[in-house]
Every structure is written in C-alpha cells, then in structure tokens.
Amino acid sequence: MSNAESVDSGQALDNNSKRMPCPKNRQLILYSNRRQTPILYIFLRTCPLSRHLPNFSNTEIAFSSKSNTQLFLARSLFQLIQCNSLVHVGGKLLNFGFKMGLPLSSLVRWNIFRHFCGGESIEECRTLMQKQMEKGVFSILDYGVEGEKTESGFNASTAEIIRTAKEAARSSEIAFIVFKFTAIASTDLLERVSRCRAKKSPLSDADQIQWTKVEARVDQICKAALDAKRPLMIDAEETWIQLAIDELAKTKMKQCNISGPCIYITFQMYRVDSLNRLKEIHEEAKRDSWHLGVKLVRGAYMEKEREYAQKQNLASPIHPTKDNTDQAYDSALEYCLANLESIGLCAGTHNEKSTVIATTFALQHSDQSPLKIHVKNNLWFSQLLGMSDNLTYNLAAAGLNAAKYVPYGPVHSVLPYLLRRAQENTSVNGQSSRELQLLDIEFTRRKG
Ligand SMILES: Cc1cc2nc3c(=O)[nH]c(=O)nc-3n(C[C@H](O)[C@H](O)[C@H](O)COP(=O)(O)OP(=O)(O)OC[C@H]3O[C@@H](n4cnc5c(N)ncnc54)[C@H](O)[C@@H]3O)c2cc1C
Description:
Strand order of the largest sheet: 4-11-10-9-8-7-6-5
Number of strands: 11
CATH architecture of the largest domain: Alpha-Beta Barrel
Order of helices and strands: HEEEHHHHHEHEHHEHEHEHHEHHEHEHH
CATH class of the largest domain: Alpha Beta
Helix content: 40-55%
Largest sheet: 8 strands, parallel
Bound molecules: flavin-adenine dinucleotide
C-alpha cells in the first residue's frame, strides 16, 4: 500500500507518525518521528474539486486580485513589449546600461520588474503571496539570481535559497522551494563537469575540489527543504551545462524520494531527447523503488541553444518546429499523468491546450478513481507571476493545485529573467496578444 493510500483512509500510519496542521490549516504534513524526513505533503484544497473543466476565459476570476490600476499598468506593459524591435534593442541597451553602472534600477522597477517580480526581498513578496493564497493560489518563491561568478556569490545565493526554505517553513502559502544551479555554481565549471560526464572521464583535481563544494551547497539546500517539509524543484538551464545538473539532481532524488517526490527535476520538452530521457529515468526510478519528481516545461533558451549548436557545428538539440515541441510536451504530460502513482508532476506552462489535457485528466479521476489520491497530491500546475492568470486562478478556483512562481531579487540581478519574459511576450512569440485580449475583456466587464 502506498503512503498516499494509507493517509487517505486515515489508517496504517505507524504509531510514531503525527499529523501536523499548518497555521492556516490549509496544509497537512505527515512525517515520521523516527526519520526526520516527511513521508507525505498534503495540501488541503481551499475549495472542493469542480466536476467541470474550468473556463479559462473567465477574467473575473483571473484578475480577481488585481485593482483597476494594476490592470491598466499590465495592459500598458504588454502593449509595449509586443513590439519585437523595442524588446530586442531595449534589452541590449538595458544590459549595457547596467554594466556601465547607469542608475536604471528605478526605471526597470516601476514597470517590467513590478509586473513579473514579487519584490527585491522575501519580505517585499509577503503581501502578494498572501493575496494569492486568498484566491487559493500557492506561491513558489524563486530567488531570481543566476549566472553568479564568484565563490562569495555562490555562498550568498545558497544562504538566500535556504532563507526561502525557512520562509516556507513558517508560511503555508509556499508550496515548493526552487533554485537554479547557476546561482550556486559557475557556468564554466558546470560545462566542464557536463563534458566529463558525457565522456565518462574523471574531473581534473581543481574541478573536483570545486565540484565537491557545489555538492555541499546542494546538500544544504536539500536539507533546508526537507526541514521546511516542502518539495524542492531544480530548474533546467542550457544543454551544455545540464548533464552535470541532472546527474547530481538524480543522486539527490535517489536519496530523498523514497516515500514520495521530495525533489523535482525539470524536463525541457523543446529538447529532442527529453521524452526518451524522461521514460528512462522513470524506469530506473521504478526499478530502484524511488519516486520521480518532474517539472515539465517547454524551455526558455531556444535561440541561445540554436546559436550555440551552429557555432559549435553541432546538430541543434531543439525540435525543429513549435508543433514538434508541443507534441513532445503533451506526450510527456500524458505519460506522467498515466504514472502519477510514481511520478510527482508539476506542469509549468502557459499553454492552454496542454493545461486542458492535464485538467481533463484530473477531473476524470476526481471521484471514484483509484488515481484520485495521486491527482490530489502529485499533480500541480504552475505559471510565472505576471503571465496567464486566467490559467492559475481558474485552476485554483476549480480546486486544483495551482502555484505561481514568484521571482524576486535585486533589480540588476533578475534582469536576464526579465528579458526572457519580455522576449517570450513579443508579438512574434504570441503570448502578449492573449494577455491583452483578456485584459480588455476584464476592463469591459468592470465598466459594466
Ligand atoms: C512554472 C514554470 C517554471 C519554469 N521553469 C523553467 C525551467 O526550469 N527551465 C526553462 O528552460 N524554462 C522554464 N520555464 C519557462 C518555460 O520554458 C517557458 O515559459 C516556456 O518555454 C513557454 O512555453 P509554454 O509552455 O508556456 O507555452 P507556449 O507559449 O505554447 O510555447 C512557447 C515555447 O515553445 C517552444 N517553441 C517556440 N517556437 C518554437 C520553434 N519554432 N521550434 C521549437 N520549439 C519552439 C519554446 O520552448 C517556447 O518557449 C518555466 C515556466 C513556468 C511556467
């Protein structure tokens, strides 16, 4: 019998296990006294699971936590970043300006930062996280620093990520802990380690010393997440550094995911090899009796990947067309949904069709199905702050597990993240027209 089944029936918990209600009684954590690791995380629904597919065009629910002024500012921003050339040139100018030390922080803070980030510190994100939770939406506090270069920078990032775990321990609004490897390790080191792993050759002595420090930082972060009794998600980045990340992450999953998915790794489905890799790792997990934690995304570095492959004279690791990526994403989604008893899934997407696939599955298994408990515990949906509120808030209103990534950090440090969001929302990439359309519908609705 799985842990989940034993918990649902309220039986078969060993005598040393306790139920720990969180302060707001939205979350129940079961853990064993003998092992100080949680055996299961259960987020109690803030409303019963609906029997109907959510209406993702319901803008009243989607923007229920936004004031008229916030809607107006969001609309102005999406109109601005719809312009491809502005995003392209503006991004380069901002990067250059920050490197030259120009005082651009205020300019960025009052428009794009305010829309896509929760604040510069954890404290600044608290009100937003509470407001989201009032609508049933959980938060994933994401320290947005990436591409750190110094030892002191890596240690400072590790300390800050641990602070997000401590914040989660005291706040029921936070569903997952998350981090990026490039916040705690140098990109050059990750690239060299990935190359050695691919060739199955040993690391140089100098690299081994540095890698041991990275492993120690990852250990500290995992421990902090376990102490906070929250699952930990590890973001995916560029292919040439990803092998080192995946191998270390898999080692941690083998250690921590015995009784449930405590560590989640990210599969970027724009990669040609991702679907097979997902199935292979899942086979390994089943064979060795651990749970696989999966965050499914399409992938955020497509242009960089293609340029890199071209420069290195390599075949592109990315699917040739958007359709191919979409098919791979939906196949991976269906595979994970069919295996929810051994896979913890977080669908990280703004794509409505993919979201409908997962939602339909969840609602089909909400009643008498034996998969019901796995849908309840092992299926999450997540979108980035400032994007696709129509999905997040309507999913939450339908009683599904929905969470917003809430990036935060000093303005200059989160700039690469902000520029990726701007890029993703240009008219070429299409997302902004959907956002603008929904904002217009809501304005009209509010005017009566
Ligand atoms: C909660 C969450 C967590 C995330 N974490 C990560 C992460 O760890 N690592 C990461 O890389 N990204 C991450 N992302 C970003 C994510 O990859 C982008 O938001 C995503 O690429 C946008 O895709 P979409 O699924 O929202 O849908 P869509 O808007 O339908 O898809 C756009 C995506 O399709 C792909 N695509 C577009 N055109 C083509 C083409 N011509 N050929 C092939 N593929 C194409 C690209 O991946 C593009 O980004 C995360 C997103 C979310 C919501």
